[in-house]
Design a protein that fits this description.
single chain; about 290 residues; alpha+beta; Pnp Oxidase, Chain A; nine-stranded antiparallel sheet; 8 helices; about 25% helix; about 25% strand; Pyridoxal 5'-phosphate synthase; oxidoreductase; FMN
């Protein structure tokens, strides 16, 4: 079973029972497969959006009134669809000012401030992030996972040690994260070294989550070739039954990873494309800060 889907079905960022934006997520999810993830990075798209006064700019709400799955009247040509879309529609996005001179001394402080702001603004699933790793040959891979926590030890996420990402991190213990929060036109990029937390921490993290998360972990065999959907259904049903019967059972392969940031970048979109990029870099005596051209 894909662990990415189960991770998205867990609770908020390391906080059992924590409500999501707008009160969503207050109920314990019993399904390990929520909605789709978000793109790994929208920076290029953000920089290419139609700015104010740009010829051909579309009115707010253009092609935006349909609900999920409603494609009536929509073109099916990919290139035409791409040209019809816009980024940061003012009907759903507010681009707040960001003064980098007033930013706190550490990236964790600013991340916490921005995270609280996007939750308050109603961003859906703000705790989901793209996780990029590379294999032994240096070939990259990326997927959506859930943030389990962030503190002085690092940004935390979890998976099976034998999954593709687990194997990547064993061979090359470096990774990058990217959060994209379009409701405020913000993204945060984090990269650094990754270590596995003690097993007790990993099991505690797992047991703080839903029955569905435990069932998905017990199903195991993540990233292995699956023979059939029926095979998955049978294994999953057995795992659900065991999770309900033994809620404190351990899953030895379940691993809590911590990314110790060496570099953290905060991106604030601007309607006139004067995007603000503030980068923190770890130094011997703390953090240095510098601005980047957008």
């Amino acid at each position: 079973m894909s662990r990415e889907a189960a991770e998205l079905g867990g609770r908020g960022a390391g906080s059992p029972g924590r409500r999501g934006p707008g009160g969503r997520g207050s109920e314990r999810r019993e399904s390990g497969a929520p909605g789709a993830g978000r793109p790994a990075s929208r920076e290029a798209e953000a920089q290419g959006h139609r700015g104010p006064g740009t010829p051909g700019a579309r009115e707010p709400g253009h092609r935006g009134a349909r609900g999920p799955g409603d494609n009536r009247g929509m073109a099916t040509d990919l290139h035409e669809l791409l040209r019809s879309l816009r980024v940061w529609d003012p009907e759903v996005t507010r681009l707040p000012p960001f003064d980098p001179e007033a930013a706190p001394a550490t990236p964790l402080e600013l991340f916490t401030e921005w995270f609280a702001a996007v939750v308050a603004a109603g961003q859906s699933e703000p705790h989901t992030m793209s996780l990029a790793t590379s294999d032994e040959a240096g070939l990259p891979d990326v997927r959506i996972v859930m943030l389990h926590g962030a503190d002085e030890a690092g940004w935390s996420f979890a998976s099976h040690a034998g999954s593709r990402k687990g194997r990547h991190l064993s061979a090359r213990p470096y990774a990058a994260l990217c959060f994209y929060w379009p409701v405020l036109g913000r993204q945060v990029r984090v990269r650094g070294t990754v270590t596995a937390a003690p097993s007790a921490d990993a099991q505690g993290d797992l047991h703080a989550r839903s029955t569905g998360a435990l069932a998905a972990a017990l199903t195991g065999r993540q990233s292995e070739v699956l023979g059939s959907v029926a095979e998955l259904a049978q294994a999953s049903q057995a795992a659900w039954e065991r999770a309900a019967r033994e809620p404190e059972t351990s899953v030895p392969s379940w691993t809590l990873y911590r990314l110790r940031a060496e570099e953290v970048e905060f991106f604030q979109g601007d309607e006139a494309r004067r995007h603000v990029r503030l980068r923190y870099r770890r130094a011997e005596d703390g953090w240095t800060r510098e601005l980047l051209w957008p």
